[in-house]
Amino acid sequence: MNGGAVRDYVDQSQTLLETSPQMDEENTKVKLVQPFIDLLGWDFYSTDVQLEYTVQMGTQSSRVDYALMVGDTPVVFIEAKPARSDLSESDIRQLQSYMRQELSVDWGVLTNGRVFEILSVNGDDRRDGETSIATFDLDEVGENPEILEILTKDAIQSGRADEIARQLTETNRAIRRLTDREEPIAERLTDILRDELGETPLDLEEQSLDFVHALRSTLRDRREFIGKSTDKEPDTIESEQIDNDSRSEEADIEAIKDSVVGEIGRQDIEGEDDAQVAVFPTRESGIPFLLENNAWGFVRIGRDFNYVAMYVTGDVREVRYFATVKDVVDPDEPDLVREPSEYVDRAKVGENKKVVRFEEGSLYRLEDPIPYESKYPQGHRYTTLGEFRTAETTDNIL
Description:
Blueprint: H1 3-19, H2 25-39, E1 49-57, E2 60-70, E3 73-80, H3 89-101, E4 107-111, E5 115-120, E6 131-137, H4 138-143, H5 153-158, H6 160-180, H7 182-197, H8 204-225, H9 244-252, E7 263-264, E8 276-282, H10 287-293, E9 295-299, E10 307-312, E11 318-329, E12 354-358, E13 364-371, E14 381-384, H11 385-390
Parallel strand pairs: 3-4, 7-13, 8-10
Antiparallel strand pairs: 1-2, 2-3, 4-5, 5-6, 8-14, 9-12, 10-11, 11-12, 11-13
């Protein structure tokens, strides 16, 4: 983020709020929210932004104030409230319900121009699927401009926002745990120290409690810096909060069956140019699910598509696999080789998740995989078979 531009935005917004503290919703949108959207790199006067985006809610329809778009797909919903009012739990639930109807929307922002609440469906600690991962006001934005990085167009498109959201979720969870259970944690730590050290001149109970407080303070400080390191490719960013045991567990999983029938060049894939291809991201640890089950899951599906392509993150960073879709079923229908929990990062079977099954003998490795350039799929994204055949890099299909 451009720190100078952010501070100018904050100064201007605070001046407007001091002059008009009872600002109504329409003025809040024009004077505070629209400049905020421009600041994030979304061009308000292009197809990047749709006003009053229609969301179908059962037999009725509602409208979200702003939808931020990648191509023709909404990826962020922004709901604005008057500056004179406070944000409420009912406002949050309203935004959550809108996000739930558009499966391509993984991000939501609720704001009154003074306070901003970010919702994401990318974290593990979910509340009905859409979790509040950060709340900040204008003063905090002015002091820490990088806090807005998670909402920039570049971060959303590249997938960097997913990594920031995951780190925020993990950090928030740890802080809550230390706050809610500080005494039991300190007691366990005291017992460990006594077993290891025996009698000491120190008050181990006091030292343990001080340690818990210091750790919580460190995590809060750490939270302010999440998202500042943006010079790495999004796929190679690793959270310091993932423990070594988790990495080892992922590395140890090996496929006991291989459904890949061979290699194929993209030009040799049969089908109409306008046929739909869903491009899914996966870590290398997710490949066993693909190979063993001739399928992909557990994912939310927003529309019909004919083919699946798999972008492998980590050290691979390319679209490597391709398959023809047979059907999309509920998670309890397919006869999986393993229990879902054994697939590590495929184990989170939530509401509305599906398994995409492939036609027998249709899963191929690509002879000419599509390399990463500057974009990789944030969740799954759609392209056409014609674009897929001719793509030089991931930027051509995302």
